[in-house]
Design goal:
It is globular, with a radius of gyration of 19 Å. It is built from eleven helices and eight strands. Helices cover 37% and strands 17% of the residues. It is of the alpha/beta class. An eight-stranded mixed sheet has the order 1-2-4-3-5-6-7-8, sandwiched between helices. It starts with a helix and ends in a 7-residue tail after the last helix. α5 links the parallel β3 and β4. α6 packs across α7.
């Protein structure tokens, strides 16, 4: 971590509007209440507290949504967000890019229908504009690694192996050759590993072309504690105790946090130097205990010869962008829009210029 950021977070308190502070405190309290010492979780009660948003076939704020099943046997589905013609007309292109989004929640909580993630994906669809596919993947502790990664990649394969006539749910203006992987926290971890697998597949993906990765405060870890983890160990949402529990119930029994799924730039990291890994933007916050891991990820991508940009929010905490009342939330979404526009223009300006 840079000295400037360390100085800032050491000498400043996290300042949030009262509404956000109450919401963050509630999320932290609910999370702690359901982390049992035996590694189990009470899904029935938790589901009562996870406020859901229904899909909207009739547009709401310029975006309509629907749920599409990929594999009912494992409850693999995605919520499709499609901007209306009026919203999509803000683009100068005939086609819109596709953003495949993975929600956060430590691999244990939430879904695409959770109110906060329904709202943020709707914002992405409207603002970028883009067709957004928000994936419902299996959760731990009931389903451990690599279930989540398998689900994420299988959605890519589902899109790739279906002809346009079979994917009638997608609008005609959805351009699968201009796909972005995106996610926050655990979802950004998932997006990274799906990107690696997709890069390893190479020519197997004929329809889906991944041209960018949007990594919002990715959830990474490791055996050796970092400075930010120790200094911000009692942070809201991702305290050290919570993240230790989440990794324990996610990883295969007997694994430690230097597993390649957790410490992606550590001793067991997958060598991506020879892969066509997509250009990436990484978002980091100054009051996020995971920030040192995220900067290490950024540096590792650079050393691996990949194009990557780091954007910092020194006065924000983990998951800040899902709180729309924060001006930094709108700023981040505007920066995602800029990144998507840049990547589309770089690959084929005539097809996808936003």
């Amino acid at each position: 971590m840079s000295a400037n950021n360390k100085q800032y977070s050491d000498s400043h308190a996290l300042v949030l509007p009262w509404k956000t502070r109450i919401s963050v405190s509630a999320v932290s309290a609910v999370t702690d209440a359901f982390l049992r010492s035996d590694g189990t979780i009470n899904r029935r009660i938790l589901s009562l507290l996870d406020v859901k948003a229904r899909p909207n076939p009739n547009p709401v704020k310029g975006v309509k949504s629907s749920d599409i099943t990929v594999d009912a046997s494992r409850n693999l589905w995605f919520r499709l967000f499609v901007p209306t013609a009026d919203t999509a007309s803000t683009s100068t292109s005939t086609y819109l890019p596709v953003v495949i989004f993975f929600h956060g929640g430590g691999f244990t909580f939430l879904s695409p229908s959770s109110f906060a993630y329904d709202a943020v994906c709707r914002r992405f669809a409207r603002t970028l504009p883009a067709v957004v596919i928000s994936v419902n993947y299996r959760l731990s502790p009931e389903h451990r690694y690599p279930s989540q990664y398998d689900d994420g990649f299988d959605v890519i394969q589902y899109l790739n192996h279906r002809s346009s006539s079979e994917l009638k749910q997608l609008p005609d203006f959805a351009d699968l050759s201009k796909c972005f992987l995106a996610g926050d926290s655990a979802g950004a971890n998932l997006a990274h590993h799906v990107a690696v697998r997709a890069s390893q597949e190479g020519t197997q993906l004929q329809v889906v072309k991944i041209i960018g990765l949007i990594s919002i405060q990715p959830f990474f870890g490791g055996e050796e504690r970092t400075d930010s983890e120790l200094r911000l160990r009692k942070s809201p949402i991702v305290s050290l105790e919570r993240t230790d529990w989440l990794w324990k119930v996610f990883l295969p029994p007997g694994s430690d946090k230097d597993h390649e799924a957790v410490n992606v730039s550590g001793p067991n990291a997958v060598d991506i130097s020879g892969l066509e890994y997509p250009e990436t933007v990484v978002f980091v916050a100054g009051f996020d205990p995971l920030q040192d891991r995220q900067r290490s990820y950024y540096e590792w991508l650079k050393k691996s010869g990949k194009r990557v940009r780091l954007i910092e929010y020194p006065d924000m905490m983990h998951a800040f962008y899902i709180f729309p009342e924060l001006p930094q939330s709108s700023q981040l979404i505007a920066q995602v829009k800029e990144f998507v526009s840049h990547r589309c223009s770089s690959t084929m300006p005539e097809d996808c210029t936003l």
